[in-house]
Amino acid sequence: MKITRHHSLLLSPLLLCLSIGSALADTPISLSHDATPNVRVNITNIKGTVTITAWDRNQVQVSGRLGDGAKQLAINGSNSNMDIRIEPQGSKSGWFNWNSDTAMASSTLDLRVPKGASLDVEVVSSPIAIDGIDGGEIKVNSVSGKVRINARTPSLNVNSVSGNLELAGRAESVSLQTVSGDILAPTVGSNADLQTVSGRIRVNGGPWKQLKLSTVSGDAQLTGGLAPNGNINIDSMSGDVQLQVPDSLSAAIHANSFSGDLRSDFGTPKKLEHGPGSELETTAGSGNGKINVETFSGDLRIRKGD
Question: Residue 8, Cβ neighbours under 10 Å: how many?
C-alpha cells in the first residue's frame, strides 16, 4: 500500500506516542554488593512490591524493575550497613514526600540477602514478603501493604496502618501494631506487645515472660503458656477476647468486664455489686505468675487447653 503524505501526518502522532511509551517503560534492576554475614540492610520503596529472600552467600543482590519517575537506584553504604532506597526524581531526602511521589510509577524490588542479615524496611503502599532470615533483627514500617514474614529472629517490630501482618517461623520478642489490619502469628516467643484498633488478633506462642495486648474493637484470640513469674496484660474496649492457657497454669488471675459476658475455666466469676459487669479473682496452681484481663463491652473467655 502506498503511504501518502496525508497518511504520514496521521501516523506521526501514533509513532510519537509509541516512542514515548517505550521511553517511559520500567527499567530493569541488576545490582549486587559484597556483605558481611550479619549485614544490616535498610530498604525503602514507596510504590510497588518488596520481596526479600535469604540465601547462603555473603552478598546482597537486587533485581526487579524501577518504575518511571524514580531516581537511578544504587546500593549505598558499606559491607556491614547498606541503603537501598527508591525515591522520586528531583525529591529531597526523606521517606514521605507526597508532593513528588505521585508521578512515580510502581517499582518492584527483589532482594537476596545473607541469612543472618538484619532488615529495616519502610514502605507506603508496597506489599512485603520476607523469607528465610535466621538470626537477624527485623523492623518494618508500612502504610497499606500486606506484610508476610517467615523468619527466625530475636526481635521483630512491625507497624502497619491497614495492611495485614502474617507471621511464620519464630520471633522471640515482638512488637506488632496495626490500625485496621489483622495480626496472625502462630509462634510468638517470650515477649510480645500487640496493639490494634479494629483488626483481629490471632496469636499462639509462649511460654510468655511478658505479653501485652491492647485492642479497641478488634477481637483477640491468644493461645499459649506463661513462663514462671510471667505476666499477661490484656485490655479491650468492645472487642471479644479469648485466652487459652495450659491446664498446668500457675498464676494469680484477675479479670473483669463492665458489660460483656465473662466466663472462665479457672474459678467462678461473680457479678459486680454495682453495675452490669462481672469480675474474677482466682489462683491457678501455685500462683507465681500474673494474668490481668479487662474488657469494657467485649465478651471474655479464659479457657484451659493442652
Answer: 10
